[in-house]
Each structure stands twice: as structure tokens, then as C-alpha cells.
Protein: DNA topoisomerase 2
Organism: Sexangularia sp. CB-2014
Amino acid sequence: YPSLFFPCSLSLPTTPHYLFTSFLCDTMPVNISDDDLTVTPVKQTGKASALGKVKGPVFSPNAGIGMADKENDSPVKKATPKKKKTVEETYAKLTQYEHVVQRPDTYIGSVEPVTQRLWVFDKDTKKMVERDVTYPPGLYKIFDEVLVNAADNHQRDPDTNRIKVEIDAEAGTISIMNNGSGIPIELHKVEGVYVPELIFGHLLTGSNFSDEDAKVTGGRNGYGAKLANIFSKEFIVETNSKEKGKVYKQVWTENMTKCAEPTIKAGGKTDWTKVTFTPDLSKFSMEKMDDDIIALFTKRVYDIAGCLAKGVKVHLNGDLIPIKSFQDYCNLYLAEKTPCVYEKVNDRWEVCICESAEGQTQQVSFSNGIWTMKGGTHVDHVLARVVKPLTEALKKKKADVKAHQIKAHLFVFVNALVVNPAFDSQTKETLT
Amino acid sequence: YPSLFFPCSLSLPTTPHYLFTSFLCDTMPVNISDDDLTVTPVKQTGKASALGKVKGPVFSPNAGIGMADKENDSPVKKATPKKKKTVEETYAKLTQYEHVVQRPDTYIGSVEPVTQRLWVFDKDTKKMVERDVTYPPGLYKIFDEVLVNAADNHQRDPDTNRIKVEIDAEAGTISIMNNGSGIPIELHKVEGVYVPELIFGHLLTGSNFSDEDAKVTGGRNGYGAKLANIFSKEFIVETNSKEKGKVYKQVWTENMTKCAEPTIKAGGKTDWTKVTFTPDLSKFSMEKMDDDIIALFTKRVYDIAGCLAKGVKVHLNGDLIPIKSFQDYCNLYLAEKTPCVYEKVNDRWEVCICESAEGQTQQVSFSNGIWTMKGGTHVDHVLARVVKPLTEALKKKKADVKAHQIKAHLFVFVNALVVNPAFDSQTKETLT
């Protein structure tokens, strides 16, 4: 391949700020062709797909995108199979379930590991650290769906004041319990199944579809827990109703394809709901939950403890998480005695701002308990509110500092409850 | 609300670069509470929903997020309707179609206008300009789905060498034609309908599900054109088969709910497929296609002309777009004689790099013809390939310039064909 040369004709500003760019003129060859990172089939690890329908992943784990394909550099292979396919072979209509399994990235994000620089919980220092984390976003997502469901229960039933999470990396099992009022243990006359079976085992079901009531829950789309069920080897729902004195239990296996009859027994005196699931790691090219995914799960449990600090005590593997306020939570990210300003704007918004040590804007933000990794309108809104008056005040002092320069030195934390939020996708990385 | 003060104890570096931050110590009040931007119901404009199922939008057009709600500042309104709802009223199971209509943001992005700084085509200067554009992302998306389908046909059938787009803002109608081999005019024996009806009028259908063949098309998920159909008042498919000497035509109306029987007649001597649709603007709180959305549509037609410059001539409203190479396309973004380097890495990758005038990284990138607004792994990959050797070369010269500083001064254009790409969501803004 030809090499890439920066032309010497570049005329660049020579202020100190731009000094380095003059080096671009040294006609340094920068070969951007790619020999080591190629599109190669991935060895399937772990248990074979129970459904036998997941197609080979696109890229190797940990690898970037191959620009060249060793096998077949050029031209692009056109789809010209030797035997002409029939229209029935070429065109297919999928069920919703098949679509989830064949196109998981539309629903839970990539099932292949990606490496991203993220904030995670460090178990030694008990602080948040920003570091490279390699994890399958889809696995993170199914954990999150179940966790956010538990957190949402505090918005639906303010008496929900305890969430208990157990993560057993050895057994590969996760359980998440909340003590709010549970799911009605009643038969749904239209669908002919009990409500817990309907909302945990049937796609496109839920109680969050009506936008007539203003909702501040994170779940909205009716996929949520079902996605966790589909990508799990085993998925168990238990719910106890104080009012009815009943406890309901139901077990799904083999990626939601097998559903046992529920058992309904006389129950205890408290309300609670518990979901226990064993993610099907083979679907994520993993054999075992590793330190990175555990650090990420742990971070999310701390997130919920921070977002719901005013009303819910959160336990992880038996220990109460020692966070009493959103400010406590923010301090997990900051060196001791870092100056920062905190403001509880109202019952729906909490904001904390300090200086970014990175020289670029940093943000940790939540909308209805969902970690909006990439920020979104809630973060933009807070930044705009802070940056504009600062810029104006500086202008009055004859200092021509641009808004983006001020922005670059801020680290903002936002904990927002937004009514009927819209996200960029089911993966909800950005609030729109 | 309490005001937000920056504490005076901040100890900041005093290099010129950080000078402005000292002003933060002036204890300037920055009240981030929000009085003017509140969550208010939006007046429905235009024709009422034909389906009567779209719920009220979340935020006002053009408005940010309200931090406070004038009507009900606090506490958060809990959902406690007076009459207790039955489980049948509370829990619902939707059809796929109902889910698309009730949760459009999962499929096409927001149906409410957003304001974003984007590159669009300026009809006066005939160049791309970056400016604030107010548009409903969902409307952009349905146009794009149909356009990318036409572009994909060049990957499936290399003889596709012409795409013709007509946009009639007055009539509110769009048509997109390509001259590649069309959709088989055959009855699908399993589904019992003609193939064009199956793939344009039934959800979760398509020919792009198999990942066994390496595909470099943009469409993958089986929603595509159906979403355009659902969000259109009228949707017409015409396809002509040279081989069979037949032309097929079918018309859907009322958001895909009404489907007329197809007509099949003796056809002409060339292959072509044409989709003509009238977006249901009432679903996007619009009465008329305005300059912003037209500028964005036009940009996308130019994008396709740039991405497929080597093989396809693209016409817009009767005029051939004068782009003969990806380099020609990149020049639409640059002032005359801007120094830049162009490299055709191989048949699948083209890259163009120049200096960013903005002081921050700029990128215009495509994966399989899809405009990845937010970039993704393909852009990161190119940047990493360029930045790393530059950083190392500078280090050898004892210049300690950080990678992110170099990055901040680059403007990269990437035109990539990626095999079986994974995107962050159906809206495909980021390549994962």
C-alpha cells in the first residue's frame, strides 16, 4: 500500500499552542494500512449456543477493525453463490425472538468484547478509577436491565428502601432483590398467564407503555428483563405479596425457551421481588465472569446506591454500601479534599461540579438511574448553564476565554430524574 | 433555589493555558436552576395521527430539558391513580407494529425536533457548512433507510450505476430510484405474498440476516424500509425486472395499515427499483419539510455520491451531482487549496486527513454508506494509526506533545466498507 505523507506545504500557526503541528511537515510516513488487525473468524468459547442461531461474531475480541482482509484483499467479494438460492432461502421473516438472538446488537449492544476507557470500582482502594476495561457491552446491559428494574421500583413504590445484589463470579450467578411491593400475583385474563410470567417471559410486554402518567422510571421499552432472560442459561423470578400472603416462583431455562409452571405458595409478611439469573457466557465469547466485568457490575451497584442515596439502602454480597448522599458518591471519583460544588436543584436534579484534572470535560451522569455513559441533553444542559455566565463574567473582565475552553476544565456529575425520557437506543448510552 | 458558588480554595496551575480558570475563584454565582425551560405538553401540529396511538411527545421542540416543572415542582408525582387499574389495564402486550408506533425512538430515533450542530449542504455556496440544524432525527432516519437501500444495491449488484433522488418539498414527496437488478417478482411460498410486499410491508423480513456471506451493505436489521412505510402517509414500490419482462407496483397508505393488491404488468428492458413515499409529517410535529431537513437530505444524497463515486452516478432533482471521487467529496468541506492527504488504502477504505481549523478533532465518516455522525471504531482506528507514529516521532525530537493534542488538530474523512458491521443501535450513529 502507498504510504501516507503529510505535505510540507502545510502552513500552520506558530503560536506555542500549535508548535507541535510544525512537525507534521517532516514528511513522516504514516502507513495506515493494516496488516495485523484483520477480520478473522472468532473461536467460539464456552458452551455452544443453546439456540444454534447466533451467527459468527464480526470482529475478533480485543481487535480493532481490519482494514484489509488477508484472505481476500480485493476486490470486495460480491455475494454470488454457485447455486442460485430460492426466494424462500434468500428472504426470511423472523419472529421477534429470532430477531433478538440474531441481531443482539440492536437490543443489548455488542456481544463481543470491546475495550473502552471507563470508570469502574476498584476493590482495593474502594474508589472509582478510570481505566481500560474489556467487556462485552451486551453482558453489562442485561445485568443493568435487571438492576434498573429494581431501582425503578423505588419510583413506583416509595416504600422500596432496600436493594440487595449478590454476584457469584465462580458460579456465574447474579441475584437482585428489592423490598418494594411486588408484581401482582394474578392471572392476566387477556393473555392467559400470570402477570410475572407475562412481564418476565414474553417480549414486548410491560407496564411502562403509557406516557399519560408522567413516569420517572428507567424502563420504558418493554424489552428489559426479557433480554436478560433470553441471554441466560437460567432465570428465576420470585415475588412475595404481603397483601395476598403469597409467594410466586417461576424458572426459565435455555435462553427463555423453556418455561416451567409457576409455583404459588403461602408467603411471608413482607413485600419483595428477587431475580436470580445465570448469564449464558457462551453468547458473549466468555468462559467466566472476569475482573473487568465484575468491576463494572460493582460500579453500577454503587451508582444505584448514589442515585437513590436519599431513600434506599443498597447491599452488595451482604455488605451495606456506605453511601449516604450523592455527594458521598461523587467523592468516590475525587482525591481527598478536592474542591467541588454540590447543588440539589430540586427533588429531581442533583449536580456536583469540580475541576477536571484531565484537561477535557469529564462527566458522570445518570438519567432515572441509568448510567448515560456518553452524557446527553441533561449534561449539556448543566454545562450550558454553568459555562455561559462564566464566559460572560470573564468577558466583562476583558478575558477572551472561549466557552469550549471553560468546558474543557469541568468535571460534572448529574443525577437526574427525567419524565418519560427518550434515549438514543435500547442501549440507552445517551439521553436525547 | 440556592446559587452555585465556585469555592475560592481552588488551587490551579497558572500557566497561560490555565489562566482563565483563576476567574472561577471570583465566587460568581451560577444559578443552574431552570425557570424558562419546563416540561410542557406540545401542541400537535398537522394532521392528527392516523393510528391514534402515538402518545404526547416528551419535550417541547427546540426546548432543553426542564429541571423544574412549574406545575408541580416537588415532590415527584407518584403514579397513584384514584381508581385502581386492573392488571389488564396496567400490563400490556404489544404487537411489533404497535411497539414501533408507541416507542419510535427505539427504531428511528426521536420524532421530536432536536437542534444539533451538523454538516449540511448549503445550496448557495454548493459547499458543506457546519451549522445548527433543527430537525426530527426520525424523519432524517426514514429518508436515510430508503437511500441506503438504494446504495446497498450497488454492493449486491455492481451493475447498479445510477441513483436518482427527487425531493419535492411542496408536495412533501420523496422518490429514490436505482438501476440495479430489482427485487424478485415472485411469490414467496412460505409467507404467501410476493417478495416485494414481504420485504417492504412486513416487519422483521429481509435478505440481510445471514452473516455466513460476508456482507458490506448498510442494511442488516430487517427494519429499514418498513419503518419508512410505517411513518408515511403513502408508500409506493415499483420494480422492473429485465429478465422477466415485468414491472411490479404496490401502494401502501395510512402508515402501512392499508396495503393494496400489487399490479404486475409487462415491463421495459432495464432493471430498476423506485420507492416513492410521503412522510407523515404530523408524526414529527411538522407541517412542511423545511430548509433544515432539506439541507440534511441533500447532504446525504451528496454523501452517497461521494461514497460510491467510483461506480455510481447520483442525480438529485434531475441534476447530476458533480462528484467524481471521494476526494472531490472531501473538498466540499474544505476551503480552496486546503492542504490535505488522501489515501485509498484498499478497495474498502479511503481516508483523507487535513488540519482541523476548530482546535478539536473533526470527523466525517461512513460505514457502508451510512453516515456515522458520532464516528466509531473505524474513525478511532484511523486516528490511532496516524497519531501514534506522530507522537513517537515528536518524542524522538524531545517534544512532549500528547496524543490527544495531536488528535485535536486533525480533521479526518473515512469512507469504509466493513463486513457485517455492528452499530450501537438501529439509528446507527456509531459503528461499534
